[in-house]
Every structure is written in structure tokens, then in C-alpha cells.
Amino acid sequence: MGLSENITAVRQKIAFAADRAGRKAEDVTLVAVSKTVDTETVEAAYREGLRCFGENRVQEYLKKSEALPSDIKWNLIGQLQTNKVKYIINNGVALLHSLDRLSLAQELQKECVKKNTSIDALIEVNIAKEESKSGLYLEQVDAFLDEIADFDRICLKGFMTVAPYTEDRTYLRKIFAQAKTLYDAKKKDFPGFKYLSMGMSNDYEDAILEGSNMVRVGTAIFGSRIYK
Q: Residues near 9 by Cβ (< 8 Å), separated by ≥ 6?
């Protein structure tokens, strides 16, 4: 299938999963993960109506954001190095998905103060405790929230998680359900929370069924990655 057909298929699956979960399709934000995808293809996806795109690398994000329409909502979804923070503050990033450590929070706060601005961010949680992935373990979340409580330039908007790559859908649903439980519990204390970002090309339907309202879909839209 081509790009247009892929986008239509993803939208239909989101709508179906949302309906099964008793929600509306428009309640789920689709972030098209455009890492390694050329600018022309991203622009074609934009013409299909997509407005949220996700990038892993700051350098690639900066290049694309300069070349593409200004109303795109850019999401940074990869692990962010502290020395790259200065390039993203006040530079069009709509949402950072990967706030995962104190040193990063400190750098975000410092740079936002310097530029008299703020940044919207999701705390990354590693529900399955996979050593190969970043993110806080569930039992570390409370302490982290306490550590950054005074960081007034970081606007917390919820949580992000990456589930293990597995065909075991029962296990996947359990991981997603734990993230939703965390989100619901903390939303009571943080009224600014609005996003639970979970679900990728291989599991976004299950994620929606368990409460995700933001999915990060790349391969199902753009095809398999070509890494240089």
C-alpha cells in the first residue's frame, strides 16, 4: 500500500479500537513518527491531514522543522541528551516525550529560564523494567515528581511508555493497564495532565483499548525504516 492508504488504514484501526474502548477516534492523538523519513514524504503525509510528527534526533528535527509547514506540532520522542537541550527550547517543540532523569529536568529548567519560556513534557516510564530502554521504574516516579516539583518551567502533561516487543498481547495489555493506572492516579494531583502516550505500530490498538490517548506510529504509516 502507498502512504495515503497506510494513513487511512491506521486511522480506521484507531477509530475501531477507540470505539471498542467506549471513546471517540478524535480522543486519540496520532503522532506520525517521521524519523529517517525524508522531508518530501513527511510533506506528503501533511497533505493527507497529519499534523503531529515525532522525531528522535534533535539535528533531524531542526532540519525538517525549518523546511516544513509551521503549523506542524513536533514531538521529540527519543532520549534527549542534556547538551542538546539548548537547541530545542523556544524552537517549536510542542511536546517532549522522554523526560526520564533529574539532570535533564535541571537543564530544561535552566534553559527555559534563560530564554524566558517553558516546555511541555511527558515523564517516560519503563513499566516492564527493560534494561535496554530508558525511563523511570514505577516505584521511582513519586520521588522524581518530588525532585522536580519546583521546576516551574517544565509543564508536565502526562506519561509516555514503550512496551516490550512481544506477540503476547495479554502481557502487553497488562503493561499498558499499569501505565493507565499510574496516569489516572497522578492526574488527580496534576490537572495539567492530558496525555498518556503509549502504543506503536505493532501494538497501538491494544494500547488504545487500555486507555492510551496518544499513539506513536511510524512503520505502519511510512513503511520499514532505512537506516544509514
A: 1, 220
pLDDT tens sequence across 63-73? 999 999 999 99
Residue spans of the domains in the chain: they are: 3-222
Smallest CA-to-CA distance from 148 within 196, 188, 114, 110 is with 110
- Exposure letters 32-59 (e unless 16+ CB within 10 A, then b): bbbbebeeeebebbbeeebebbbbbebe
pLDDT at residue 226, as a whole number:
66
Question: pLDDT, tens digit, for every residue of 11-50?
Answer: 999 999 999 999 999 999 999 999 999 999 999 999 999 9
Note the CATH architecture for domain 3-222: Alpha-Beta Barrel (3.20)
pLDDT value of position 227: 58
Q: What percent of the chain has pLDDT over 70?
A: 99
Q: How far is the C-alpha of 94 from the C-alpha of 52, rounded, in Å?
A: 9
Three-state DSSP string of the chain = CCHHHHHHHHHHHHHHHHHHCCCCHHHCEEEEECCCCCHHHHHHHHHCCCCEEEECCHHHHHHHHHHCCCCCEEEECCCCCHHHHHHHCCCCEEEEEEECCHHHHHHHHHHHHHCCCCEEEEEEECCCCCCCCCCECHHHHHHHHHHCCCCCCEEEEEEEECCCCCCCHHHHHHHHHHHHHHHHHHHCCCCCCCEEECCCCCCHHHHHHCCCCEEEECHHHHCCCCCC
